[in-house]
Design brief:
Helix content: over 70%
Largest sheet: 2 strands, antiparallel
Number of strands: 4
Low-confidence stretches: 1-8
Order of helices and strands: HHHHHHHEEEHHHHE
Mean pLDDT: 86
Distance between the termini: 93 Å
Radius of gyration: 30 Å
Strand content: under 5%
Number of helices: 11
Strand order of the largest sheet: 1-4
Shape: elongated
């Protein structure tokens, strides 16, 4: 028995040396099994090639059919195993890359934390906005609404040389389109945060395009206006979305879930548990009131463009507080239909 174990250990050491010589530093058990399976499949194919010539003379075809069914089941089991291994590989490889990026030192800006690091810190802290709960989504909406406006303001300055309002609300530099987009991307891509970037790219294309289309359709339905029109861009759908910007949404999906979301989650982790929930609900009330006032102000602006006079005290207040000049500054790109 001792000789057998010694012989087996010697064989394993020999295999390891051969693997090392071939440039393989680590061979997992599943890889060894896959090599054995490949060898078995080669043997089955070789045996089958010889059996095909004798098949016309075979009397018991039922046994042949049973063999075929067994091979079919083997193929199905192998396909399932392959799919499971690919999933594990994709996630393990993605997590490793994210951690390597996290550890990479940059000169002017720190690297984003890996999502797996954020998961661990949230779990250890027992944070009120841990995981994917309502508090985190509300905070992401608020932060995204602000950051989106700032980025677009800077883009306008770099592209055109001047600053122009990109706000979507009458109070403060906030645009709920960006907030809604950030929430939608987070909800749909959160489960893929530790997986390969290609999934986030496809998810970003789909989610961003749907959000953009619904926002454009809703604005035109409610106010008869549009803030963007892609009718002149190739491969567009009703001028609301187009392939080019859908591609950009895909890039944003990867950038969001792999870089921006973990940065935002790290920022949210700094909000203390003791006051975090109260702060979140206070901001929620502010945004709700802000959104309602904005809807009323835009609605009344639309009526003024059509030449309609105010019919009550609320409309008089809106006319005085949010006149055309102020609304044109806030919504610089809004156009009303005929």
């Amino acid at each position: 028995m001792g000789k057998l174990i010694k012989k087996q250990n010697s064989s394993e050491e020999k295999d390891k040396k051969e693997d090392k010589a071939a440039g393989k530093s680590y061979i997992s058990e599943v890889e060894r099994v896959s090599l054995e399976l490949h060898q078995t499949a080669e043997q089955i194919k070789s045996t089958a090639d010889e059996f095909y010539t004798k098949l016309p003379e075979t009397k018991n075809l039922e046994e042949v059919e049973q063999r075929a069914e067994s091979l079919k089941r083997a193929a199905a089991n192998t396909s399932k195993a392959l799919a499971q291994i690919c999933v594990v590989y994709d996630e393990l490889n993605a997590r490793c890359k994210d951690i390597k990026m996290q550890r990479r030192h940059r000169r002017f800006i720190s690297a984003a934390p890996a999502n797996t690091t954020i998961d661990l810190r949230e779990k250890e802290a027992g944070h009120f906005a841990g995981g994917l709960n309502i508090y985190k989504l509300l905070l992401i909406c608020f932060i995204g609404s602000f950051v989106g406006v700032v980025i677009e303001l800077l883009w306008c300055l770099l592209r055109h040389g001047y600053l122009e309002s990109r706000s979507g609300l009458v109070y403060g530099p906030f645009n709920l389109l960006y907030g809604a987009g950030a929430v939608a991307l987070t909800v749909c891509l959160y489960r893929f945060r530790n997986k390969g970037a290609w999934i986030s790219f496809l998810g970003g294309m789909i989610v961003g395009s749907v959000v953009e289309y619904l926002c454009s359709w809703g604005q035109e339905l409610l106010f008869g206006s549009r803030s963007w029109d892609y009718s002149m861009v190739p491969f567009n759908i009703n001028g609301r979305i187009c392939l080019l910007y859908s591609f950009f949404w895909g890039i944003l999906g990867v950038l969001w879930i792999k870089d921006l979301y973990p940065r935002m989650a790290r920022l949210i982790l700094k909000i203390p548990n003791a006051s975090g929930k109260a702060i979140t609900w206070a901001l929620t009330v502010f945004f709700i009131v802000n959104a309602l006032v904005s809807l009323a102000a835009v609605g009344r602006w639309s009526e003024r463009v059509k030449g309609l006079e105010p019919s009550n005290a609320v409309e008089v207040f809106l006319d005085e507080r949010f006149d055309n000049e102020r609304m044109e500054r806030i919504y610089a790109n809004m156009e009303f239909g005929e």
